[in-house]
Design a protein that fits this description.
The complex is a heterodimer.
Chain A (H helix, E strand, L loop, with lengths): L1 H20 L10 H14 L4 H9 L1 H22 L15 H23 L8 H18 L8 H25 L22 H26 L1
Helix pairs in contact in A: 2-3, 3-4, 4-8, 5-6, 5-8, 6-8, 7-8
Chain B lengths: L1 H5 L1 H19 L3 H22 L23 H32 L13
Classes of the chains: A mainly alpha, B mainly alpha.
Amino acid sequence: MRKIISFILIAIIAAGIFFSLQEIPFGAAKSRVREYYLDNGIEQTGATNIVTSVVVSYRGFDTLGEVTVLFLATIGLSAILYREKERKIKKRRKSSLILYTGCKFLFPLILLFGAYIFIHGHLTPGGGFQGGAIIASGFLLTMLGCWRWEGFNRNRFKITESISGLVFVVVGLLGLLYGGYFLSNYLPKGVPNELFSAGIIPIIYVVIGFKVGSEIAGIINDMVRSG
Amino acid sequence: MEFIENYLYYIASFGLILIGLYIMLVKKNLIKMIIGLSIIDTGVNILLISMGYLKEGTAPIFSHKDLLPSRMVDPVPQALVLTAIVIGVAILALALTLTIVLYRHYGTLNVRKIRDLKW
């Protein structure tokens, strides 16, 4: 009975989507804001990657809100999983030599790759969110593959996360002081397509990279520790 | 046939959304319901990206001089999806954590056996 009701419901939704979809052409330019960002993006922000200039500069306040959502999810997760007495972790078998060596060899390279991704966020496809996710995957590798199955100290993740969030807000507030509005680009924009260009965009994206990396690594760490 | 060629991405994304909705409505296991939620998330991301697509457009990055702004895809949906993916991961982790606590409390993941949680 439940299946039939849900099937009818989904059929109704699908019919509604089908009729409204025919009004939306695929592969045609739809919004006028796209032209504005693409024509004026480099002059106004200095970043060659227009997606980055939309994320950090044009909609920087929106990004601050989304980072806050991520922060709240992490805090809620650790609050739910918290136990006053930590369960005794069973002694686990040490991983084999090949796994241990490969893991030790790969971990710094993964960190370096993540750092490359978020430092070059204003020039190449990439940025803080992607680089942070890559760094967190490196921490997951160490927890699964080698010496730290029992997890890391969770305060270190929290401290990194809080400091980077604070730097984001302070950089934005300095914009209020020097540029006249929150998150204004007050540093020199430089020559496009160079590493040190685009004013505050690289700084904010590096900070976002640290924040996202420590948050996702902290989520994984909490889940591993609570077992 | 032409309809399918023109609207392939829309069909795929709404297909994923409807599949996820069906899973969330029908399945009784909480983990499977969360998998449905994750499938809906993927479908919404594909839908947003395909809305901004331009025929034979390039990525909105001015890496060299001959790239024209009129031939680039819409950067705004890409910027939205960029953050939505990471937030999707965090929401997924939060939902799984709540499931862990529910399992500790009730000893089962079946929605029908958990009190006050049936429809």
